Amino acid sequence: MLSQIQGLHHVTSLASGAQRNNAFFTRTLGLRRVKKTVNFDRPDVYHLYYGDEIGTPGTVMTYFPFPNATRRTPGSGEVSTTAFSVPKGSLPFWEERLTGRTPSLREGRFGEARLRFDGPDRDDLTLVETEDDRTPWTESGIDADTAIRGFHSVELALPDIAPTSELLRFMGYEEAGTDGAVTRFSMPNGNGANFVDLLQSDAPEAGQGAGSVHHVAFAVADRAAQKEVQQALEGEGFQVTEQIDRDYFWAIYFRSPGGVLFEVATGEPGFDRDEERGALGEALKLPDQHAHLRERLDATLEPISD
């Protein structure tokens, strides 16, 4: 069993427009945009990162906004819900804040109060009331007693949860209970983004599009720990990529048994490697291999107003 994984690192999703996506996550949800860069494989598409003040692992929601992308078809074999942690007693504030902007629904799970709502592309998002001492970003105007702390969990909808359950146990997660069709796995002594919920689902296979989660990333401290995880996963028969430099972290990828793409990402070097902390997310940052495209990208990428 692995001991290097610390919880969630980031969740990366697809969107249909950069400006609308940016406005929702920074203005409505109050997260900080900590990086504005481009997709390594499609430099004509932004890669936008939202999180706490410095993009601490366990807080970062990221998006590839493909202009005019068709929307997802929800189903099985996908990350069906991304949940954020908010303070106890804060859901009435959020319910009022989201009124008129997106449909929302109060619900409960594992004794937690939850507010489920749609993102800009009908992304399936949830706020969960918890005791969470992580420091939120408050410069957006949302007070500390209501602001988002970071991730609470991801939910994976799967036709058979058993193989992914075994993988999570190997990754260091412990089964924490069952509520209806959902089985929860928890990371002991994790980074705050500690839960993975597995939903037993008989739905048809999901169709990826705007609003879909592209992959979910798990956190490790550094490249040495990541290498140990890579070798251990390969020993279990998983096909794992080499360690890839993503500028702000190093990444490895593999496909989980349920079909969801998993990443393991490092906490180093961080989002302040090429910007001062006070200016994170302001300038368009390009990977070295795409630096020669700056003039064209400045002219063709959708403008984002802050």
From TrEMBL:
<dbReference type="InterPro" id="IPR052537">
    <property type="entry name" value="Extradiol_RC_dioxygenase"/>
</dbReference>
<dbReference type="InterPro" id="IPR029068">
    <property type="entry name" value="Glyas_Bleomycin-R_OHBP_Dase"/>
</dbReference>
<dbReference type="Pfam" id="PF00903">
    <property type="entry name" value="Glyoxalase"/>
</dbReference>
<protein>
    <recommendedName>
        <fullName>VOC domain-containing protein</fullName>
    </recommendedName>
</protein>
<dbReference type="InterPro" id="IPR037523">
    <property type="entry name" value="VOC_core"/>
</dbReference>
<dbReference type="InterPro" id="IPR004360">
    <property type="entry name" value="Glyas_Fos-R_dOase_dom"/>
</dbReference>
<feature type="domain" description="VOC">
    <location>
        <begin position="150"/>
        <end position="267"/>
    </location>
</feature>
